Amino acid sequence: MLNLIVLQSSPYAGLVGIGIAILFIFIVLMTLVKRYKRCPSDRILVVYGKVSGGGSAKCIHGGAAFIFPVIQDYQFLDLTPISIEVNLVNALSKQNIRVNVPSRFTIGVSTEPGIMQNAAERLLGLGQSQIQELAQEIIFGQLRLVVASMDIEEINNDRDKFLTNISQSVETELKKVGLKLINVNITDIVDESGYIQALGKEAAAHAINAARKSVAEKNRDGSIGEANALQDERTQVAAANAKAVEGENIAKINVANSDSLRRQREAEAERVAIASEKVQTAKALEESYAAEQLAETARAERERSSQLADIIVPAEIDKRKVEIDAEAKAENIRRIARGEADAILFKAQAEAQGLYEVLTKQAAGLDEIVKAAGNNSKDAVLLLIADKLPELVRLQAEAIKNIKIDKITVWENGGGKDGKSSTSNFISGMYKSVPPLQEMFNMAGMDLPEYLKGKDIPVDLIDGKKEKSEE
């Protein structure tokens, strides 16, 4: 009791306890790490013992699991494929013909969940040779059953069906022990009686005959085809040539139609252009003639106004001219006083005002004349002509006023036509040479006096003029 108390009081006692605890924990951890098992991809991890789910074993492929010590243990199943040579000899077919079926099967442990569980229950602990023997026995039995259920013809001719039946039968039995069928390879199938060989020879002969027949038919078909091809070639070449000629003719017709249509269009366009040009020329001439007519009308109106103004108001113009001159002189004096520049300005204004007054007075005078004539322009013209008639008569009389006659010698017998002498005829003809006023008076709607119409002058007037002339 005393020694124990001494140890507890020793300064190294705590360190020892800690070391022991750490060592214990390390051992536990290492144990746990070693019990954590990872499953590679080419194996199946089988955990057996006390497993979850109530099964006899737990299969894991491609994962990991913790193996509890004491209550669980583990083992691996190899997934490496196993190749088994199965040489079935003297298998009885459905026709009671014995055949030899040399073949090779490739199998392996299945990774399907249910079948993998069967492998864990039936193959765990077996070596690869033991698994191969087990699978070989299952394959032999199922292969004999398949051969017994089929005819020789089916086995020989329909290899796909034969392999399908073998795969279905064998794989069904292999799954019961946890295996799966990977591949089946059947080599040559033979029988003791030579039936399969005979079938092969028959098939070969049939194939050879069929081939010969096919060759002959092909040669015949080739000859016929060659002849048909030559015939088709000649027919198609002739048809193509005919079609080409037809196409050329159609093309030429189309070209001719196109040229004709083009010429028609060009002629139509040219006709329309010429007609349009003539229409435009006619319109231009029409407008030109209309403008000239308006110009001539305006000019005639201007000339008529000018002539009326010259005939009707010459006196007014002269009078107004005097007034304008007086006003212009007065305005010039005023402009000189205001300066040379203002003088020019006022002169222009005075001239414009004078012209305005002249035109205003002329218009007023013409308006008064028209009103005096009862708003009849023809009567107004007659008034103007009547106003100028004395002057016109004076001018008419003065036409022969200044004719100087030095001497008149008359030889006549005193007789003449209508009682007129040659002297009177001379004087009368002289008056007839005066410019006639009859046309002007007719235009004005007036009658020229009889003595001014160029008729015969009374004899007494001629004799009086004659005596005066002799004096």
TrEMBL record:
Q: CDD domains, alphabetically?
A: SPFH_flotillin
Q: Where are the transmembrane segments?
A: 12-33
Q: Where in the cell is it found?
A: Cell membrane; Membrane
Q: Which organism is it from?
A: Polaribacter filamentus
The record's section on InterPro entries has: Band_7 (IPR001107), Band_7/SPFH_dom_sf (IPR036013), Flotillin_fam (IPR027705)
> SUPFAM superfamilies this protein is in?
Band 7/SPFH domain
Q: By its UniProt entry, which PANTHER family does this protein fall under?
A: FLOTILLIN-LIKE PROTEIN 1-RELATED (PTHR13806:SF31), FLOTILLIN-RELATED (PTHR13806)
Q: What is the name of the protein in this document?
A: Flotillin
Looking at the record, the residues that make up the Band domain are 34-203
Membrane topology is: Single-pass membrane protein
**Cellular component terms per the entry's GO annotation:** plasma membrane
- Lineage of origin: Bacteria, Pseudomonadati, Bacteroidota, Flavobacteriia, Flavobacteriales
**Similarity annotation:** Belongs to the band 7/mec-2 family. Flotillin subfamily.
Key words of the record = Cell membrane, Membrane, Transmembrane, Transmembrane helix
